[in-house]
Each structure stands twice: as structure tokens, then as C-alpha cells.
Amino acid sequence: MTTYKEKDIVGILRNIPIFQGLQDKEYDRIIPLLKLEKYEPGAHIIKEGTHGDSMCIIISGTVKVTKKDESGEEILVDTLYAESYFGEFSLIDNMPRSANVISIEDTELFRLEKKELDELLARSSAISNTFYKNCLEVTFSRFRNIISNFAFSQHDLRKKSSILDELNKDLSLAKKLQGYFINRELLDHEHSFLPGVRHSYLYKPCMEIGGDFLNVTELKPGVASIIIADIMGHGITSALGTGVLKSAFSISIAEYALNPTRLMEFLNSHFLEVITQLYATCYYAVVDMKKKRIRLAKAGHPHPIFWKGKNRDFTEIECQGTGLGLVKKAEFGQVEYDIEEGDKILFYTDGIIEQRDPRGEMYSEARLKNIFRELILGGRDGLVHSIYDDVKSHAGASPIEDDMTLLLLEF
Fold this sequence. Notes:
The protein is an alpha+beta fold. It has twelve helices and 18 strands. The strands form four sheets. The protein has a five-stranded antiparallel sheet with strand order 9-18-17-14-15. Strands 10-11-12-13-16 form a five-stranded antiparallel sheet. Strand 4 and strand 5 form a beta hairpin. Helix 4 crosses helix 5, helix 8 packs across helix 9 and helix 11 crosses helix 12 (about 385-395).
């Protein structure tokens, strides 16, 4: 780091969209993570198809970006110079590299590793909040530009095809980025995230990307939190809202994880502060298998369906709370219930109960409860997918109107 002045490095970072808006002291925390690397002419800095786990910032020199076509011929995609950067979304999606980057002349660059940045983001909520918000804004800004370019290129079929290719790439990138918002690491694990609990879930956005949010966090042995949310609308706009919600949740979980009411208050304030044109419904739960209790808080979201195995019937959950981003000083209550063997709790978003059939009739909460009851009493496995099949059967030829998410806990 002695070769380059710190103020010059900060100046470069300020011009990179995903790092814009940070405080000087926050840039100071990123600088020690930058590793200086030197390459001779013709050196491969990045190889297409290899694992992406870092971004690079060119300090001096020139590089070319290339791809191979179907015949194996190398195609020049771009040429990058000092203060350019590449690979920034490898800090998010961990996907294989999409192109080669080769030095044209002696080149020096800084490399930022995803693992080290993740550790910094986990320690600093301020940097994390700004970073993920910037990532979403950059992705959706590119998306809007492509739409605009597409409108002016209809006369040229070749240009139109090229723009559609770029649009698909950006939608794919946005989908990968949004995959960060669904905590698949725990949800997809073959064993439950809690002892004595079996879980299953389903996430079906109605477009390429969606506005539903689902996250499970293991707070300590035997205790986990669950958050499910639905951002207004669906598609690009609501996907942006999921980024805001994920960022806020990441910031608040350390302090408010065991206090659903305070967590909802924080999420509401954050939503009002960061993005004023959207609102969200949300449900938050803390499951404690040591105490055999579940604590719940609501923010305008449908109550989960709570099946009591001992009674072989549903228990109505009574809890109040308005949606996030609607009222500045909203109040959120919380309730607690005992958990017993044989109990089941089904969390869902309203895309399930509001799906219409060809006659315009909604699926409804009543039908959801009825099919849930029938499946349980019939001893059926695969309850979540059976419910989804019933929703699709109800929809028939009608298009799927909204994102659909289900999470089932079986005790």
C-alpha cells in the first residue's frame, strides 16, 4: 500500500457505484482489504468459467475483456484502462466468471476478495446497508437503460436482438442478486435448522424476479428466527424493496432478534427512511425449542395457520400490526404460544390466497385452511407442494398474478 496514497485510493473508490456514499472512515476500513497485484503483458487476470470470488480495480495499465464464441474464436468485448474495475458482482453472487480479462501491457491492480468484504459487512451495518442498496440501484439502473435503448432500436433487428440479450443478462443478474434475499443455505439443508422441527418451503416469483422475502436465522442452539415478507407489487420495483428489507433485517437482527416488536419498529423506520414509495407486509417469529414456545409479531401480513396436533384443529392467532412503511410511529404487538408435538405452522404470502380462477374467484384463506386440514388428516407428505398444486388447479387457465411463498414448520 505504500506505493499509493490513501486519499488517491479513496478517490478511486468514490467513483465506483457500489461503494458510493460511504463516509471517509468507512473507506478507511475497505482500503486494508485491497491487495496489490502486478501482471505482465499477456497474463490472464481472470479466466472465463472459473469461480468468481473477487473484484479488481485497475491502477495502471490496460486490459482487454474477451469471450469465446461457439466456434471457440476469441471475441473482444471491451478494453479497460486505469481506474476501471471489473468483477464487482462476484462480491455478491459467487457465480462463474463470464469473460476473460487479459493484460495488454504491464498492469497493476487492487483485488478485493468477497470473503474479506463479507466479514467487514458483517461487522459494519452502515457499510453493509450502503453497499447492498448500491448493488440493487446499479442493477436496476442498467435494466432501465436497456429498456430505454430497446425503445429506440426497434428499426434494427440486429440491435434489438443484442439489447434483448443484454436485458436477459441483467434480469439473470438481478435474479442471482435476489437469491441472496432468500436464505437457501439453511432452508435447503437436508436437516432442519432446529432440533425436533421438520421444515419445507416453496418460493415461486410470478416474474423473473419477485418481491417476496423469506429468511431463517439460527440465533443460538435450539432457537431460530423466521421472517417472511411481501413487498408491494411484483417484479423489478418490489425486488428493489426486498433489498431494502434484507439490508434492514441484517442490521437489526443482532440487537432485536429476540424482541419481535422492536424489530418490527426498526424495519418500519428503516423502510420509511430509505424508500418512501413502497410498503411491505411482514411476519416475524422466534421459535425456541428449549422452552417449547413461539413468539410472533405481525406487520399487516396474513397470520400463519397454526395447527394444534393435540386438538386436531386450528388455533387462531391474535396479533395486531400495520404494514411496514405506512405509518411513522406504527405500533406492533406480539404474542406467544406453546409448541407441542404434532403442531404445524404454515407461513405464506398473499399471492397464495389472492390467486383468481377464470371466473375471478380468489383461492381464499378458507380454501387454504381446508386443503391444509385435509392433507394433515389424510397423513399426506409433501404438504407444501400439494398446497401449491391445489392453487394451480384453482387458477386453471388464469395467469399467476403474484409471487407465492410458503414455509411449513412441523413439530
